[in-house]
Amino acid sequence: MAKATHIPLPDGSSAAILYEDRSILALDKPAGWILGPDDWQHTRRNLSLQLQDDIREGAFWAQSRNLRFIRFIHRLDGPTSGVMLWAKSQGALEQYSRLFATRGVNKTYLAVTDGIPSEKIWRRRDPIGPEPGKPGRYMVDPAAGKEAETNFELLDVSGRQALVLAEPYSGRTHQIRLHLLATGCPVAGDELYGRPSDGGLGLRAIRLEFRDPFTKRPICIDAPVKDFCWSYGFRVPDRVRELARRRDQAPPLPKLDAGAELAEASDGETALGEPAFDDGQEPQRAAPPRPAPVRPFPRAGTGRPAPRKRPPGPPRSRGPSR
Length: 322
Known about the structure:
Strand 4 (71-72) and strand 5 form a beta hairpin. Strands 1, 2, 3, 4, 5, 6, 7, 10, 11, 12 and 13 form an eleven-stranded mixed β-sheet that branches. By secondary structure, the protein is α+β, with helices and mostly antiparallel strands. It folds into two domains: 1-102 and 254-284, no CATH class; 106-209 and 225-250, Pseudouridine synthase, CATH 3.30.2350. The chain has helices at 47-57, 60-63, 90-101, 175-183, 226-231, 238-248, 258-263, and strands at residues 6-8, 14-20, 24-29, 71-72, 81-87, 105-114, 121-124, 128-130, 138-140, 150-158, 161-168, 203-211, 218-222.
């Protein structure tokens, strides 16, 4: 059965499948879909809940993969679009959660700002914490905030807006948005920290780079950028094109080791502490490889295999003695 390349969503949008292997799916998350708890029913745009419903109901994209498990590994803000990873088994969720927790993933974003940064390349290390008395909002908090670091590069300018490349080293909530606000150039369309607009939030996750925790292969996943750039009046910058060229010129990956593939179906506790399954079903497991036939050693001096001994059977019955 041919596999679907897009996941249709009830609001008429879709999530393109950017990458897939035995452990993960990489989706291009549409803006406006949140990643809430499975029991959170306050919106119809809970992407995690929607994908799990699709699996239970036998949606084609899931059925064509015989998929029985899906969990997000990391988060993107609701209004942010772009590439994000989903685990296809409990073992994959555990391993990839650890990869993110140990900062083993390089993340790249494009942001459109209201205002022009004064520097071409800069770094922000403002600590970030929740804003007291305002649930859902965060702030730069030098006294009690957690460490956060983001590298920025100015790519292009159009009128009073700028196109900026952002590479967060840490993963605090609203980190890029708050660090650009601290720069004096909030993200365009930011309803929390800037000025809302009909075009939505000008922030898109465009790349994830990491080493597969099972096979140790380098993986690079890109999300399309042209429509995002054009919607704000920018061309795709040469700097972003260069990222794609580096990916395309990388040497081909070695063939996947069969033993490593089997390891991807491993079981165990999740690093996020989330329940592994909500329907009581186990993920599919690969069948163990058949053992190779054992050949007997040759008899000394003959070069021929020793005759096989028959296993003992029931004693033969003897007829009546004459």
